[in-house]
């Protein structure tokens, strides 16, 4: 008995050790497995011999000319051999462990004259090319594999039958007709094809059995002429809201959210996973679509539950390509050239008009002063001299209308039985729209110049038939050269600098050794602005690198029980950034006097106007700055997947831990401490007969952000599904409803990313504080150490409760529809208290807690239509619609009026005053009780007494009379649609994308007011209130030099509908053999009620780096020797 127990103990130990080491096990005698694409007979023989005791005897020359074929067979040796040698002309005899092969006489004696047949293989439903399909002559030893475009060339005798096969499709036979070009359509085999979608932790789930809300998109749909991958999301991914706020090279990626915004603490971004490793949105933007094999969006709690706290805002999962089942290398090459131009350009009045308007602004304020004389205005209008009568369009001095970019990619993939590989190199060069003034100012080219290098290298080593070791390496390098001045400040300088006060620079007088930059502060003392000088006074060279390395091991454990698998992944990610800068001073001059001789030659007297009083050094002074972070991640997975008759069972258990070190070069001790997370997750799914589906998930996660007792959170989910179309009673409807599935899910998600704060359960104390003030009248001050934040040991997880109901439909085998309704309630949102009175002594001290709540609901919809028309035409259509509306349901606040409470409002919604046109005359001003600011006059904006409308006893209209706007600044509706048409080798597609229920607030464009010298935009000059145009509904109120707080208030006068629809992309291409030539474009046209700039960029004055219109010219070539 003791010996038996000891033996069992040793056996358990051996099994445990087996879990962590690769194994190569022999197949049971007589039962073998052969799987793979494009496998030659010799390769199949080697697979059988290596996994069994069988040995083959044959004449090598009999197999040399035989083609490869796609195989997926398992069973007794006789059954496998029948499949392997079908149609090859090879017969076999099994004699014990020996297998003797012989070439049949019919195949050997076939000597008829052959012709060359050219053709292509496509999916009958989608029209997409089928790559790697086997095309062979029936009963004869000749065959080929289709190339990357689904095309093939084969020699056959008229009357022969071609057999076309591919895994997941019904095998098709076509009779050869002399000289005829064949287009073969393969129909999905319902029994074989069950599309696998990549879901949580890289696990593949059959689409038919999925109950979570997951959308997969083909990588080809992400191919748009942009260096940032996220710019392809808007309108193409149902459930994703994406907006591009800038076109600046290297920073033009879109902001995106999965199903909108569900929290107010700033942690709104989805989790992004690349080959099992978490990456940032910046890393995502640098990915080339050429390397992507799968792209999935996980949207509901069931789909994201296994990521626990990391997946609260949805998950994007990206897998990269491999060389699996490709014998000979496939090389793909792509090169593109782009011409970019801004989608909008601000229009300013000329210098003389500016002078007239400036004088008008003084007259509107009651002044009789006219700083610009009629002589000055006439000289400026006539353009007598650019230094005596400057007329500078600062925007045109700084920016050009076009830029040129290049993009290049080459990738190769292939391998063999033991090792396969994929390697890709992408080089992207972008330039900005800043003018090169180096020849004008003896400076350097300060245009933005971004060089990106991206490398992806994947290697899979098969240590045995059940063991795999994979190494995936993604390296992103980026070098950026740009001015020292920020783009926001540079564009602001184009509007904030007077066009007539000074030239860009004064002519060289032969005495000074530096550039005499023009400035003038006679109308605004202290203003020393010259954006061209600021542009030329320094530069930055930034180099940043991102390295993501992942090592994964997989071991099938069928020897324990069929369908059991173990996987482990360890990854390292390092990001670093180094900025070398050089800056120099610039000398400021203004025109003191000028004279003109009899020949019309001008002479100038300029005066140095530096703040220091003397010349400043123009020598470049260097600077350097460093930053970076690194992440270590580990996960171990035990996965079980098996079918018992009509029962499909899947179970998964995961352990993971994560460590992130940020602020590597920071002196902040707390910020430099590693951020650590740990968790386990599990999933159990069941399907009966493909009809009735159920899934249960859970995540149990730990976070350092909370005190003991609150560090661990449990987040479960449950989902069910019903494939109605699999029922027998549904069969009569199959000709219309090819597929119908209903899904529903419920679950909890957690979020520990609470506004970026760390260790909030502990207080922070400022030991060098000057003191704090308290008392009813604020007249008591104590000096010494002060709390900057009170600790709260009860702070815990932000929790979201998610519900999803979905419907999947396929009509007529060609139209796929997916519809989902979602609702989320987010509670315990982290917030700083706003209701603690100052007399309690907390003034200036932060007090946090789980105080707020929010709900988010809506629906998303996706449609995909594919149809072949006649012999040569194929058309497809894609459309998406997403609506996501959030509402704050709880908030710790103390508003002045109840109607100003955030409760009931959306996040990202602006507060505005309500206008009532413009004041008509002085009596109208006198009777208005407006006390927003002084200097009110006819032509100023008049506001409604909102508080009185809501029943408050308040006759004064002031800045507290505001309400919430109707629509937020992040769109609640995003949609997209467009067709793709192919005729023979010519293809054409276009895609429209739009948004609705979104607003923007215009600001920072008001000329002259607040003592400003800001230039005047033409739309202001064209429709303004003036003594000659006393229109109380004018687009712009009166111009005034006085401080006019009234006219610059955020109000509905400046609120605009930011909805738009864009011709986002269009492309036309031609394919010739293995080459494709194409022309494409992005942001080609915008249709919107808002006309001043691209509404997608949001509010402000439009003076920011504009989004770019792109014209792209490309060439792609594929070299595929597997034919």
TrEMBL record:
Pfam families: CarbopepD_reg_2 (PF13715), Plug (PF07715). Keywords: Cell outer membrane, Membrane, Transmembrane, Transmembrane beta strand, Transport. PROSITE patterns: TONB_DEPENDENT_REC_3. It is a multi-pass membrane protein. One of its GO terms (cellular component) is cell outer membrane. It is found in: Cell outer membrane. Residues 207-315 form the TonB-dependent receptor plug domain. InterPro entries: CarboxyPept-like_regulatory (IPR008969), Plug_dom (IPR012910), Plug_dom_sf (IPR037066), TonB-dep_OMP_SusC/RagA (IPR023996), TonB-dep_OMP_SusC/RagA_CS (IPR023997), TonB-dep_rcpt-like (IPR039426). NCBIfam families: OMP_RagA_SusC, SusC_RagA_signa. Belongs to the TonB-dependent receptor family. This is SusC/RagA family TonB-linked outer membrane protein. It comes from Bacteroides caccae CL03T12C61. The lineage of its organism: Bacteria, Pseudomonadati, Bacteroidota, Bacteroidia, Bacteroidales.
């Amino acid at each position: 008995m003791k010996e038996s127990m000891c033996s069992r103990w040793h056996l358990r130990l051996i099994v445990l050790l087996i879990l962590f080491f690769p194994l190569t096990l022999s197949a049971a005698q007589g039962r073998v497995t052969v799987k793979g694409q494009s496998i030659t007979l010799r390769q199949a023989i080697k697979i059988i011999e290596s996994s069994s005791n069988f040995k083959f005897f044959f004449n090598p020359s009999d197999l040399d000319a035989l083609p490869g074929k796609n195989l997926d067979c398992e069973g007794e040796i006789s059954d496998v051999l029948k499949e392997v040698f079908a149609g090859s002309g090879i017969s076999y005899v099994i004699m014990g462990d020996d297998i003797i092969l012989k070439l049949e006489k019919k195949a050997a004696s076939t000597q008829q004259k052959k012709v060359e047949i050219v053709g292509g293989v496509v999916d009958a439903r989608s029209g997409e090319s089928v790559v790697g399909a086997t095309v062979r002559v029936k009963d004869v030893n000749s065959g080929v594999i289709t190339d990357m475009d689904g095309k093939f060339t084969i020699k056959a005798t008229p009357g022969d039958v071609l057999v076309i096969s591919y895994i997941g499709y019904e095998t098709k036979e076509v009779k050869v007709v002399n000289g005829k070009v064949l287009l073969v359509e393969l129909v999905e085999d319902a029994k074989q094809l069950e599309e696998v979608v990549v879901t949580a932790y890289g696990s593949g789930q059959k689409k038919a059995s999925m109950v979570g809300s997951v959308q997969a998109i083909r990588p080809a749909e992400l191919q748009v002429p942009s260096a940032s991958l996220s710019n392809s999301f808007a309108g193409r991914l149902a459930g994703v809201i994406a907006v591009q706020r800038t076109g600046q090279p290297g920073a033009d990626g879109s902001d995106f959210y999965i199903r909108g915004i569900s929290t107010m603490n700033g942690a709104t971004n989805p989790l992004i996973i690349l080959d099992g490793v978490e990456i940032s949105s910046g890393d995502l933007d640098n990915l080339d679509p050429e390397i992507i094999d799968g792209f999935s969006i996980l949207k509901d709690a069931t789909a994201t539950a296994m990521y626990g706290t990391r997946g609260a805002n949805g998950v994007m999962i990206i897998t990269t390509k491999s060389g699996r089942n490709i014998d000979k290398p496939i090389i793909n090459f792509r090169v593109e050239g782009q011409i970019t131009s801004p989608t909008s350009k601000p229009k300013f009045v000329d210098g003389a008009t500016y002078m007239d308007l400036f004088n008008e602004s003084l007259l509107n304020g009651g002044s009789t002063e006219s700083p610009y004389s009629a002589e000055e205005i006439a000289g400026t209008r006539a353009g007598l001299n650019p230094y005596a009568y400057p007329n500078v369009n600062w925007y045109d001095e700084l920016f050009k209308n076009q830029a040129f970019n290049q993009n290049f990619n080459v990738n190769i993939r292939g391998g063999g039985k033991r090792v396969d590989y994929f390697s890709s190199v992408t080089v992207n060069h972008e330039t900005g729209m800043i003018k090169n003034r180096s020849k004008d100012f003896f400076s350097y080219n300060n245009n933005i110049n971004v060089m990106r290098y991206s490398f992806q290298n994947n290697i899979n080593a098969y240590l045995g038939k059940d063991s795999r070791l994979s190494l995936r390496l993604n390296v992103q390098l980026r070098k950026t050269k740009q001015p020292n001045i920020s783009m926001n400040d540079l564009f602001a300088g184009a509007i904030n600098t007077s066009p007539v006060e000074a030239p860009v620079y004064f002519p060289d007088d032969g005495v000074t050794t530096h550039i005499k930059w023009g400035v003038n502060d006679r109308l605004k003392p202290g203003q020393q602005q010259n954006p061209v000088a600021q542009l030329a006074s320094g530069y930055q060279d930034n180099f940043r690198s991102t390295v993501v390395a992942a090592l994964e091991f997989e071991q099938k454990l069928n020897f324990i029980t069929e369908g059991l698998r173990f996987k482990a992944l360890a990854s390292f990610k390092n990001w670093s950034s180094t900025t070398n800068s050089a800056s120099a001073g610039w000398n400021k001059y203004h025109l003191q006097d000028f004279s003109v001789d009899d020949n019309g030659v001008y002479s100038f007297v300029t005066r140095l106007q530096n703040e220091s009083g003397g010349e400043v050094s123009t020598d470049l002074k260097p600077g350097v700055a460093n930053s970076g972070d690194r992440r270590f991640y580990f996960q171990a997975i035990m996965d079980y997947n098996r079918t018992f008759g009509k029962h499909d069972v899947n179970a998964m258990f995961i352990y993971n831990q994560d460590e992130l070190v940020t602020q590597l070069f920071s002196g902040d001790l707390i910020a430099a401490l590693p951020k650590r997370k740990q968790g386990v997750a599990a999933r159990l799914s069941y399907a009966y007969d493909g009809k009735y589906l159920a899934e249960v998930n859970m995540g149990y996660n730990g976070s350092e952000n909370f005190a003991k007792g609150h560090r661990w959170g449990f987040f479960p989910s449950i989902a069910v599904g019903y494939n109605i179309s699999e029922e027998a009673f549904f069969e009569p409807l199959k000709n219309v409803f090819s597929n119908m599935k209903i899904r529903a899910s419920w679950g909890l998600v957690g979020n520990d990313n609470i506004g970026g704060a760390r260790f909030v359960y502990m207080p922070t104390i400022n030991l060098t504080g000057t003191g704090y003030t308290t008392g009813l009248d604020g007249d008591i001050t104590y000096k010494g150490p002060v709390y900057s934040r009170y600790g709260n040991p009860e702070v815990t997880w932000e929790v979201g409760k998610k519900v999803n109901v979905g419907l999947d439909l396929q009509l007529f085998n060609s139209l796929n529809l997916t519809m989902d309704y979602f609702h989320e309630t987010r509670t315990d949102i982290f917030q700083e208290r706003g209701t603690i009175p100052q007399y309690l002594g907390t003034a200036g001290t932060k007090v946090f807690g789980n105080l707020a709540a929010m709900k988010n609901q809506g629906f998303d919809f996706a449609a995909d239509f594919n149809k072949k028309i006649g012999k040569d035409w194929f058309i497809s259509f894609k459309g998406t619609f997403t609506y996501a509306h959030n509402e704050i349901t709880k908030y710790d606040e103390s508003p002045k009026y109840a109607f100003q409470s955030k409760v009931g409002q959306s996040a990202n919604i602006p507060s505005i005053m309500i206008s009532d046109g413009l004041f008509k005359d002085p009596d109208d001003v006198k009777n208005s009780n407006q006390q927003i600011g002084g200097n009110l006059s006819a032509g100023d904006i008049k506001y409604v007494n909102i508080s009185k409308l809501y029943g408050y006893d308040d006759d004064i209209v002031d800045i507290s009379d505001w309400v919430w706007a109707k629509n937020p600044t992040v769109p609640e509706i995003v949609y997209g649609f467009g067709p793709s048409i192919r005729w023979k080798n010519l293809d054409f597609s276009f895609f429209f994308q739009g948004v609705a229920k979104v607003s923007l607030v215009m600001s920072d464009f008001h000329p002259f007011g607040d003592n400003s010298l800001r230039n005047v935009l033409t739309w202001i000059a064209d429709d303004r209130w003036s003594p000659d145009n006393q229109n109380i509904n004018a687009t712009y109120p009166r111009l005034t030099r006085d401080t006019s707080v009234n006219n610059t208030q955020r109000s509905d006068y400046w609120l605009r509908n930011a909805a738009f629809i864009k011709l986002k992309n269009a492309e036309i291409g031609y394919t010739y053999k293995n080459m494709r030539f194409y022309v494409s474009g992005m942001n080609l046209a915008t249709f919107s009620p808002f006309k001043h700039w691209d509404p997608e960029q949001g509010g402000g004055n439009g003076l920011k780096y504009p989004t770019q219109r792109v014209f792209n010219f490309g060439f792609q070539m594929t070299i595929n020797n597997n034919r």
